[in-house]
Amino acid sequence: MDLKNLALGRHVLIEYYGCTTEIIENNGLIEQYMREAADHAGARVVESVFHHFNPYGVSGAVIIAESHLTIHTWPEYDFASVDVYTCGDEVDPSKAADYLSVKLQAKKTELMEIPRGIAGKIKQFANQRDNKKPEKIEMEKSEG
Amino acid sequence: MDLKNLALGRHVLIEYYGCTTEIIENNGLIEQYMREAADHAGARVVESVFHHFNPYGVSGAVIIAESHLTIHTWPEYDFASVDVYTCGDEVDPSKAADYLSVKLQAKKTELMEIPRGIAGKIKQFANQRDNKKPEKIEMEKSEG
């Protein structure tokens, strides 16, 4: 059974409970860890944007060639919520999740993975093209 | 039954199948629609970052005071994949989803909502503080 072509992307949603407060309120550290997490997953970082909220919390996104990572932290609750969305076979989002679990010093990590862009539905609903209907979904995009 | 305090955030994952190709390959238009979608949801846009990939596709993130929106488009498949993650009671992520469904001219929209940051687990794992343990989770953050 060939499982490769079922979906375009893998989306991992991770909740980090009981993180170290001082880490998840540090904007610079969070941006560094998120970019390092992308590296650990095998992704190529394109751009990132991070914002520190007053009085608490960091929100940020890292655009990677293979989709994105995002984070929101609630230092007052020692809680951080992360998404890692990747496409292609070269990148493993669970490696980013594991890396951040260590770096944020989470007491409890909960993770779920959701396939994104179901190939069968893409084929069903794509517009007709002259010789361009995507009969075969290529999982590997060079970028994007 | 009070449902307000079960989770910090609402995360809506949306797949738009059969979009209009010319729209979802247009970086400027996608950024505009994403920022407008945030407005429609009642969110406050803080920053955004968008990237156009060669040869196909747009990836972008909008950081809002209430969390984020992201998008990835595959014009070659007429497919776009969006996330709208919000916290607080003032913002309705489904309004952003509906707005984009119209703007991307999707033939088929599929949506699921996942609660993020479960209050009971936050209380269970938060570090002990002097008079600061979050016995009461405030759903309304002024920002973040």
Automatic annotation (TrEMBL), chains A, B:
Q: Which family does it belong to?
A: Belongs to the prokaryotic AdoMetDC family. Type 1 subfamily.
Q: What EC number(s) would the UniProt record show?
A: 4.1.1.50
Superkingdom, taxonomy of origin? Bacteria
Q: Where is this region: Disordered?
A: 125-144
What protein is this chain from?
S-adenosylmethionine decarboxylase proenzyme
| The UniProt record lists the keyword Lyase | yes
Purpose? Catalyzes the decarboxylation of S-adenosylmethionine to S-adenosylmethioninamine (dcAdoMet), the propylamine donor required for the synthesis of the polyamines spermine and spermidine from the diamine putrescine.
Q: NCBIfam families attached here?
A: SAM_DCase_Bsu
The organism of origin for this protein = Oceanobacillus zhaokaii
The record ties this protein, via Gene3D superfamilies, to: 3.30.160.750, S-adenosylmethionine decarboxylase domain (3.30.360.110)
